[in-house]
Amino acid sequence: MAPGPEIIIAAFEQSGIIPVFYHDDVTVCREVLQACYDAGLRVFEFTSRGENAQKNFAVLRELKQSSMPDLYLGIGTIKHAADAAVYTALGADFIVCPIVDPETAVYCQSANIVWIPGCMTPTEISVAEKNGATLVKLFPGNILGPGYVKAIKPLFPRLKFMPTGGVEPTQLSLDTWFDAGVVCVGMGANLLSKILIDSKDWESLKDKIMQTFAFLKAMK
């Protein structure tokens, strides 16, 4: 059974940086997860974006259980309640969606697993809130920008926000987003460098993640 929603939301806030990743090669998936964990991150979003997604997620879940007991491993790019159910059965700790799907919200509430919907407009954010969301993914973050967060936060004082896309692994970018009022940021290729992954330079990848994490900790 997944940890309670309040535990997961607190973990997102404490981590601050949520790596977002998918790869067809399960060995690459394991190495990237290990680099993130060794760098100090304790929340990881694997995305359901390829034919090996379920199989690879199951392997990552086994790795978590065997050597990463304090890691929260969830699944992203979920657009249907049926897919959320599949990954809940595989042991996902949370469900992240690129859209607001009320049926998925109902399923997640019944399963007591965190539902983090993706929103772009105030109307979508309102629908997410009415369907029980407490943390909303702002997507695509590179289109919306930190100014959007400042504009909508007063409209939704009870919600917490996480942009995904458009966040750079720099002190300036992190400062700008967090100053705007987000509680955490989702980062894909900007954090998990394709060049380093393709070259299998896991040590340099870990160092890059550690440096980005250090930028975040310097703000606190």
Short description:
The protein is an alpha/beta fold and 220 residues long. The protein has helices at 5-15, 26-38, 53-67, 81-89, 102-111, 122-130, 141-144, 146-152, 171-180, 194-198, 202-219, and strands spanning 17-21, 43-47, 72-76, 94-96, 114-116, 118-119, 135-138, 160-163, 185-187.
What can you see in these coordinates?
The chain has helices at 5-15, 26-38, 53-67, 81-89, 102-111, 122-130, 141-144, 146-152, 171-180, 194-198, 202-219; strands at 17-21, 43-47, 72-76, 94-96, 114-116, 118-119, 135-138, 160-163, 185-187. It is α/β, with parallel strands linked by helices. The protein has a single domain (5-215), classed as Aldolase class I (TIM Barrel, Alpha-Beta Barrel), CATH 3.20.20.70. It has a four-stranded parallel β-sheet with strand order 3-2-1-9, sandwiched between helices. It has a three-stranded parallel β-sheet with strand order 6-7-8, covered by helices on one side. Helix 6 links the parallel strand 6 (118-119) and strand 7. The longest helix has 18 residues, at 202-219. The mean pLDDT is 96.
Topology:
Elements: H1 5-15, E1 17-21, H2 26-38, E2 43-47, H3 53-67, E3 72-76, H4 81-89, E4 94-96, H5 102-111, E5 114-116, E6 118-119, H6 122-130, E7 135-138, H7 141-144, H8 146-152, E8 160-163, H9 171-180, E9 185-187, H10 194-198, H11 202-219
Parallel strand pairs: 1-2, 1-9, 2-3, 4-5, 6-7, 7-8
Helix pairs in contact: 2-3, 2-11, 4-5, 8-9
